[in-house]
Specification:
Keywords: Cell membrane, Membrane, Transmembrane, Transmembrane helix. It is a multi-pass membrane protein. InterPro entries: Surf1/Shy1, Surf1/Surf4. Belongs to the SURF1 family. With 259 residues, this protein is α/β, with parallel strands linked by helices. 37% of the residues lie in helices and 24% in strands. It has 2 domains: 83 residues; 121 residues, OB fold (Dihydrolipoamide Acetyltransferase, E2P). The protein has a 5-stranded mixed beta barrel. Helix 1 runs antiparallel to helix 4. The longest helix has 43 residues. The relative contact order is 0.17.
């Protein structure tokens, strides 16, 4: 085998190793998703409770609190309302309206009041339902602050944002906010009917199992191809060279040799 063949074989083995690792990563993600689904099922089944009893003094909504039903009572601060742009529900584009609810102890929680479908190509909602006045009791599902990597979509700018992020909103709104937010499921007085509700969580295993099998299949193909072509190379090297036919010597050549 020449150097080029050895280099190609090593490249195939590296490729197979990478495929195996990617498959393992997908199965690891599957286990994480199953664990998250179990937490979600437990939280969905739990009875509603005051937000401070669920989160405690840190006031941070973590993965373990996702979709837990909390109850808060306070007054909406309509002057610090934020319009969430570029939102989608069931592939339908629109806006979400987030309004801080200031509680009796001075702390505030971001309330996602609902979804307003985009009517045409407007960049802002044509009409935003008025914020209820007076004391309001909100029941809703807790969600952790949204994060968008290196983007700054969680910092409100001109009354709009792309993500709901408690700490980023607090910097601009000047409120002592919980780190997270609530999606309304019930409101007293009742929420405006113009708002559409939110769908529940997706509780399934996703595509990770089949993706994992797919990567391992690619690894098997790579190794199988290497073995096949290696055997072909070895067979080619062992095959005897064809015998050259003897060329009959001319009479003139024999006569010249005798002279």
């Amino acid at each position: 085998m020449n150097v080029r063949w050895i280099a190609a074989a090593l490249a195939v083995l590296v490729l197979a190793f990478v495929c195996v690792q990617l498959g393992r990563w997908q199965f690891h993600r599957l286990e994480e998703r199953k664990a998250r689904n179990e937490v979600t099922r437990t939280n969905l089944a739990a009875a509603p409770a005051p937000i401070d009893q669920i989160l405690g003094p840190p006031g941070v909504v973590g993965d373990q609190h996702a979709w837990r039903t909390a109850v808060v009572t306070g007054r909406f601060d309509a002057t610090k309302q934020i319009v969430l742009k570029y939102r989608n529900i069931d592939d339908r584009p629109g806006f979400e309206i987030v309004t801080p609810l200031v509680l009796a102890d001075g702390k505030a929680v971001l309330i996602d009041r609902g979804f307003l479908p985009r009517q045409s190509s407007e960049l802002m909602p044509l009409k935003i339902p008025a914020v209820p006045t007076g004391e309001v009791t909100v029941t809703g599902r807790l969600q952790r602050s949204e994060r968008g990597g290196h983007t700054n979509g969680g910092v409100p700018d001109g009354g709009t944002a792309r993500l709901i992020n408690g700490p980023d909103f607090a910097k601009v709104l000047g409120l002592n906010l919980y780190d997270g937010y609530m999606m309304v499921t019930k409101e007293e007085p009742a929420n405006d009917p113009a708002f559409l509700g939110f769908p529940g969580p997706e509780i399934d295993d996703g595509p990770h199992f089949f993706y994992g099998l797919q990567w391992w299949f690619f690894a098997l193909l790579a190794v199988g191809g290497l073995v096949y072509f290696s055997r072909q190379e070895v067979r080619g090297a062992k095959k005897p060279a064809p015998e050259q036919p003897e060329v009959a010597e001319r009479p003139e050549a024999r006569a010249a040799a005798k002279d």
